[in-house]
Specification:
Length: about 210
């Protein structure tokens, strides 16, 4: 049995679990854009709400860290994990916001490759949300970061194929520029999920 002199303050783990649920919620909203004729304004507004909720959650986490004498995990790791989870939400919100601001709902349907990126991000969100509550017991986390790495590779491939589609001549130049900005935010979200997993791995190694 692993023995630790650190207190097991459930509040910290609850912060991370709630952030994981925000990731799932954010991707559920963003994925509505996979359907032609989606209400992009509604998607954008609801993603802003999720992003604001997560900002507050991150702020509360930092306050909790700063006001706790002995934390259950390394302070710097908890700061990093909170910040990286917030980064994921920021990229998800930015992608949805750009689709609305750029008027991309006028397209007949989003490219299949963009939907593939949505699918990867949805999977990453679910896997992350399932893993974060296990931080307290450090249970079966290796499977989590291995899967996130695999999904990130899938996301890279989907992103490259999306770029091929965008520059195939199917779309006018202005639309290509707009859609590439959205694609870049989606790809950044994929990378941000991997950063979260890397920090969880660092924590698990330290605590083992």
């Amino acid at each position: 049995m692993r023995f630790s002199l650190r207190p097991q303050d459930d509040a910290f783990y609850q912060f991370f679990s709630q952030a994981g649920q925000n990731l799932v919620r954010g991707m559920e909203i963003l994925s509505e854009l996979a359907v032609a004729g989606a209400d992009t304004q509604s998607v954008s507004e609801r993603l802003v709400e999720v992003e604001h909720d997560n900002d507050q959650l991150t702020h509360d986490l930092y306050n909790k860290i700063n006001s706790t004498f002995v934390t259950p995990l390394d302070r710097e790791d908890m700061y990093a994990l909170g910040s990286q989870l917030d980064d994921v939400i920021d990229h998800i919100e930015a992608a949805g916001n750009l689709v609305y601001l750029y008027g991309l709902s006028e397209l007949p349907a989003p490219p299949r490759e963009m939907i593939d990126l949505f699918d990867v991000l949805n999977a990453q969100a679910r896997v992350t949300a399932e893993a974060l509550p296990r931080l307290k017991g450090m249970n079966n986390l290796k499977e989590y970061w291995i899967e996130i790495n695999r999904l990130e590779n899938d996301g890279d491939r989907a992103y490259r194929m999306l770029l091929v589609r965008l520059f195939s001549g199917e779309y006018d130049a202005l639309t290509v520029l707009k859609m590439k900005e959205v694609a870049d935010e989606l790809e950044a979200a994929c990378d941000a999920f991997e950063h979260v997993a890397n920090t969880v791995e660092t924590i698990a190694v330290k605590e083992s």
